[in-house]
Structure formats: C-alpha cells, structure tokens
Amino acid sequence: MSLSKEQSERYARNLALREVGIQGQEKLREAKVLIIGAGGLGSPAAMYLAAAGIGTLGIADGDRVDVSNLQRQILHTDEDTGRAKVFSARETLNRLNPEVTVHAYETTVTDANIMNLIADYDFILDASDNFETKFLINDACVLAGKPFSHAGVIRFTGQLMTWVPGQGPCYRCIFGGPPPADAVPDDRQAGVIGAAAGVIGSLQAMEAVRYILGCGKLLTGYLLNCDFLTMEFRKIRLPVRVPDCGVCGDHPVITLDNRERYRGR
User: Fold this and answer.
1) Confidence of residue 180 (pLDDT cuts 50, 70, 90)
2) Which terminal CB of the chain, N or C, has fewer other CB atoms within 10 Å?
3) Does 52 score more than 70 pLDDT?
4) Are 122 and 33 in contact (CB under 8 A)?
5) Which residue stretches of 180-232 are H helix?
6) What tens digit of pLDDT does each residue of 93-115 get?
C-alpha cells in the first residue's frame, strides 16, 4: 500500500503502532463494518472506526433524530432534529474522514432484510437498543458465520461480548431468549448516562479494529460487565459451548429456513 502524504499524516499514530503499520492500515482500509443502530452505542463506534480508516461503514437504523437523543448520540446535533439518523450519521462521518465510504440504510432491521444487510460485511456491531433486535442480530450472524460484537448499556452500567465462528458461545447461548415484555425497563424508563454509552460503544469499535488487525485477545468466551459508578470492570468467563442453544447447539431449532417463526424466542 502506498500512502499519500495526507494519509501518512492522518494515520500517523496508527502507523507508529507495531500492531498496525502500513500493512495493518491497508487491512483497515479494505475492511467493511456494519453498525446496526445509530444511537448511543453506534455513534462513538462509528466515529472511531471512521477516524481509524475503516474503508467501508454501513449504518442501519430506521429512526429519526429526536432532541432527547442528543444527550448521548454524538453523531447528531440539534440541527439534525427530525432527520433520518442514518443520513445525519453519514454526513458527520464524511466530515470526519472523507475517505471512508458510508452506506446508509434507513430501515428497521427485521427477519426479512437482515441477511441481505450483513452479507457484504466482515464484522457486525450490535448497537441496537432492544432485546428482540439483539437476538435477531445474534441468530443471523451465527447462521451466516459473521463475527459480531454485542453491547448493551443502561443507567451507569454496560456490557460487551464478541462472537466469532468457532470461538466461544453466542448471545443466545448465554441469555436464552428475550425477557417477557415490560420485565426489564428500557433506557427511557431507567435512564442512561451518555458517557457510559460512549465508553461501551468505543469498546465495540476496539473489538472491530482488533478483529480486523488480528491482534490482541477478543472478548470471545467472555462477558465484560462495566459499572461506571464504582469503576469496576468484571470480565466473566463464559461456558465453552452450550449444547442446547437454539441456534448453535447440538440440535438447533433456528435455521435459515425457519428463523422468522422463532423471532424473539
């Protein structure tokens, strides 16, 4: 890879790293990362991935910017209120790094479109804000063999895990299925501090970068729990595999042919 003078200056701190260098920067440039959710988690993740020089970013979200989002969703500004989040996100990312190709998918992710959405991407970030979508992302990625980072944040806490084919349990292995409706408060009810989303979303970006570069030890086989009131980070070892998992166990019931029937279970 031959870097222009401007690129050498832009990525100088990347190039100085033994784990990156010119070859690593080329890996980042060739990589394609899809972020599902342009909100509190997706905002910092997208900005750091664009700044790092990821060649292609996909942003999927069907929502529009609301003033209540601005406390944590740093892709958007007050002027973006009412706009589709994905278009606001694309403008912000293009201003940050014009070299990055940003694909904006103004759509809610569903059983009908998720396989097509993830098909062309190397790594998926689950930056969604509801359990149904999280299980949908997990199941689709497992069935398609796509590595992904799951994250969630509420109040002053967050959690993170990564799944790579053949390396550790998936999200459904650990959590089984979505909780009953209204059993767990969402961030509208419980609240969320913006900086918590910033930290967890940044960690998701770090997982994507480390996967692409092939360096460090990913959070495969572990769940990272973060308590920002006490500043305690707990890395919990997960079971190597869960034989009765509905999507990746010994006798899976969720398949490419019937995944719609099992949505949310």
Assistant:
1) confident
2) N
3) yes
4) yes
5) 187-190, 194-213
6) 999 999 999 999 999 999 999 99
Q: Cα-Cα-Cα-Cα dihedral of 174, 110, 188, 192, to 10°?
A: 50
Question: What does the mean pLDDT of the chain come to?
Answer: 94
Phi and psi of 249, rounded to 5°?
Answer: -80, -170
Cross-strand partners of 153: 158
Give yes or no for a contact between 175 and 238, defined as CB atoms under 8 angstroms apart: no
Between helices 85-96 and 42-52, what is the axis angle to 10°? 30
74's CB contacts (< 8 A; 6+ apart) are 43, 44, 47, 194, 198
In the chain, the amino acid numbered 210 is: R
What is the rounded distance in angstroms from the CA atom of residue 116 to the CA atom of residue 134? 17
Q: Which one-letter DSSP state was computed for residue 239?
A: P
CA-wise closest residue to 209 among 45, 40, 82: 45
Residues recorded for the chain: 265
What does the block give as tokens for 260? 């719609």
**Contact residues for 180 (Cβ-Cβ < 8 A; gap 6+):** none
Confidence of residue 117 (pLDDT cuts 50, 70, 90): very high
- Contact present, 84 and 60 (Cβ < 8 Å): no
HSE, CB side, 13 Å, CA atoms: give it for residue 172: 27
The set of residues, in sequence order, having a beta carbon less than 8 Å from that of 166 and lying 6+ positions away, is: none
| Cα 55–Cα 59–Cα 65 angle in degrees, nearest 5 | 135
